[in-house]
Amino acid sequence: MNQKGIGLIGIIVVLFIIVGILPWILMSIVPQAKILIQLILIFAIYTSVRGYLGSGTLTLIISGVLIYILVIKYAAFSSAAYMYMVVLQVGVSSMLIWGTNFFLIKFGRRH
Q1: Mind listing the pLDDT tens digit for each residue in 26-81?
Q2: Could you tell me if 86 and 23 are in contact, meaning their C-beta atoms sit under 8 angstroms apart?
Q3: Residue 19: helix, strand or coil by DSSP?
Q4: pTM score over 0.85
Q5: Which residues contact 70 (CB under 8 A, 6 or more apart)?
Q6: Contact 61, 55 (CB under 8 A)
Q7: At what angle do helices 75-106 and 3-29 cross, to 10 degrees?
Q8: What percentage of the chain's residues is helix, strand, coil (to nearest 5)?
Q9: Distance CA 47, CA 49 (A)
């Protein structure tokens, strides 16, 4: 069995757990960070709902309900989920950029 691979997977799992716990710790220690994270979550929720439903009264109602549940009641859980989402988005986009660059160089489209 490859011991280096097991160690690398363990490090990745620990870092993944730290990324989930970090917003909760930061919101507990620094009150300004809690306000900033809540504002970011509010804007993310509103823009997502507006993207799906358009501008209107239904958008405001659904956004208000989601903001109350996710930002006010369960802020720690929502901030951890948002951090995981950001990490996944950055990882996937970097893989796409690397893959595009690799295939452009390999097939001679870029000199």
Answers
A1: 989 998 999 999 999 999 999 999 999 999 999 999 999 999 999 999 988 999 99
A2: no
A3: helix
A4: no
A5: 41, 45, 77, 78
A6: no
A7: 140
A8: 90, 0, 10
A9: 6
CA distance linking residue 57 with residue 53, whole number of Å:
10
Q: What are phi and psi of 74, to 5 degrees?
A: -120, 60
Residue 37 corresponds to which tokens in the numbers above?
Answer: 């994270």
The answer to whether 56 and 94 are in contact (CB under 8 A) is: no
Selection from 95, 104, 81 nearest residue 16 by Cα: 81
Structural tokens at position 60: 């405001």
Instruction: Enter the tokens of residue 47.
Output: 């823009």
Retrieve residue 32's tokens: 């300004």
SS3 state of residue 81:
helix
